[in-house]
TrEMBL record:
Keyword Membrane assigned: yes
Transmembrane regions: 28-46, 52-69, 78-96, 102-124, 136-158, 201-221
Organism lineage string: Bacteria, Bacillati, Actinomycetota, Actinomycetes, Micrococcales
Protein name, per record: Potassium channel domain-containing protein
Sorted UniProt keywords: Membrane, Transmembrane, Transmembrane helix
């Protein structure tokens, strides 16, 4: 007598993920839009002094990343509290036209820390989900762009802490040139028109170039590997033995 149990065929690869995201726009579109705005504001800076509005926008970007990546509620609350305090501080700085080297260093360091947290949160979120879809691609692009912004702020902080020019006497130190150098280094394009002058900046540039390559072969691969379902989900159930 054959068993009444029927073997259930596994669903098509990625179909379970498609059902989860259908009809729901990905929040990574908003993350990318905020990143573009942050890049534009920073690229408009003709000096190394960070802009308070750009700083607030960067913190908003990180807060949105934490929301999209479904970070712990307590972490999100702390992020919004910090954002509110930073927003108030930025308004005070703008209204009273406050300036100071210590203020510039504080803004640069805070932005750098924020852009270090964001890509880690994105990668952690994408590793936990499965399926190769538009959200996974947008997440990979967002994380890659955040890494480039992070290193640009590292160069900015070094420029604020040191007296010697970051890229030599022929290049004006500015957040704009630091962004350009960061992304050409991250992608290992290396046009050669901007060259790091000090050993410290050279070491950071080498670390960024290595990070860019490792990101492509590890972080992106970890995000995309979700397209493969675990063996225990795809393995067919054992057939029932016939009994007399």
């Amino acid at each position: 007598m054959e068993s009444g149990d029927t073997m259930r065929e596994p669903s098509p690869l990625g179909s379970h993920v498609a059902r989860q995201v259908v009809g729901r726009p990905s929040g990574y579109w908003l993350v990318l839009a905020l990143l573009v705005l942050s890049y534009v504001l920073c690229a408009a800076q003709g000096t190394t002094d960070p802009s308070p509005p750009a700083f607030v926008l960067q913190l908003v970007t990180v807060a949105v990343v934490l929301r999209v990546t479904e970070a712990h509620t307590r972490v999100q609350r702390i992020a919004w509290i910090v954002l509110a305090a930073a927003g108030i501080a930025a308004v005070v700085v703008s209204v009273f036209d406050l300036e100071g080297h210590a203020l510039d260093i504080s803004l640069s360091a805070a932005s750098m820390l924020a852009f270090l947290i964001a890509p880690v949160a994105i990668i952690r979120h994408q590793v936990r989900r499965r399926g190769l879809d538009a959200e996974a691609l947008l997440a990979a692009i967002s994380a890659y762009a955040l890494v480039g912004m992070f290193f640009a702020l590292v160069y900015n902080l070094v420029a604020l802490l040191t007296v010697a020019p970051t890229f030599g006497p022929t290049v004006v130190d500015s957040l704009s040139s630091q962004l350009f150098f960061s992304f050409t280094t991250l992608t290992t394009t290396g046009y050669g028109n901007i060259v790091p002058a000090s050993p410290t900046v050279q070491g950071i540039a080498v670390a960024e170039a290595i990070t860019g390559q490792l990101f492509l072969i590890t972080a992106v691969a970890r995000i995309m590997r979700g397209n493969r379902r675990p063996a225990y989900e795809t393995a067919p159930a054992p057939a029932s033995e016939e009994t007399s």
